[in-house]
Amino acid sequence: xxxxxxALGDAPLWSPDGGxxxxxxxxxxxxxxxxxxxxxxxxxxxxxxxxxNMGRFxxxxxxxxxxxxxxxxxxxxxxxxxxxxxxxxxxxxxx
Length: 95
Description:
By secondary structure, the chain is mainly beta.
């Protein structure tokens, strides 16, 4: 089903229960995650900001329990190093 909500932002994803659509938008001047309720293929109310100031991110989808997963697009990569044997977390750090 297509409907006018697709014009609200990018990367729309239906929630597992079909009751809302989450999407990316910079309508406040910074990229954020927004949600709008849906019933009978129509928006229920105005979109609501779920998480502000996201920067660049990639929506990954929903878990079966309804958690929304996303990846942050960053220009750096960290390499983690752990010294010691199993269970030794004192030596863990960023290289």
